[in-house]
Structures are given as C-alpha cells and as structure tokens.
Design brief:
By secondary structure, the chain is mostly helical. 88% of the residues lie in helices and 0% in strands. The longest helix has 37 residues.
C-alpha cells in the first residue's frame, strides 16, 4: 500500500482510468468478435454491418489511447481484408 500522498493520488487516478479504459477496450473486443463470427458465417450483410461497427469501436479506442493506433489499424486491416474476400466470393 502506498504511503506517500502523491502515490495514493496516483493509485486513485490509475483506478479511474482503468475503469474508463475497460469500457472502450471491451466494446472493441465485443464488436470485433461479432464481426469475426459474421464473417465465418458468411452472412454478407451482417458481416458488412458488424465490420463497420468494429472499425468504429477500434477507432474510438485508439482515439482515447486505450489501444495503440497501429494496433487498431492492424486489426481493422485484417477485418476489412476478410470482408473483401467474402464480398469477392459472393460476387
């Protein structure tokens, strides 16, 4: 347990930030999981919609500093690549 006043405050701040970050990280994970499931099910309309929602959630998480921008970009790229392959297969 921290004894210094500054360390106690730092712990308090870290706890608040952790709880705030969990929201954005959890949303991003949920939307990415849903998008992957739709892509595997090969449901084109659902896959397109859920992928765009996942991209939005990843962008928001990166904007808030929860995810590194390159990490979010990499995940978005992989999802969009899978979506493009599914659209090509459906055409």
């Amino acid at each position: 347990m921290a004894n210094l006043k500054s360390a106690i405050k730092r712990n308090r701040q870290n706890k608040k930030r952790r709880l705030r970050n969990r929201v954005y990280r959890g949303q991003a994970r949920t939307f990415v999981r849903d998008a992957r499931a739709a892509l595997l099910a090969e449901d084109l309309d659902e896959a397109r919609e859920s992928t765009l929602m996942a991209v939005k959630a990843l962008d928001k998480a990166a904007e808030k500093g929860v995810l590194h921008k390159n990490n979010a970009s990499r995940r978005k790229s992989r999802l969009m690549k899978q979506l493009a392959a599914l659209e090509k297969q459906a055409a």
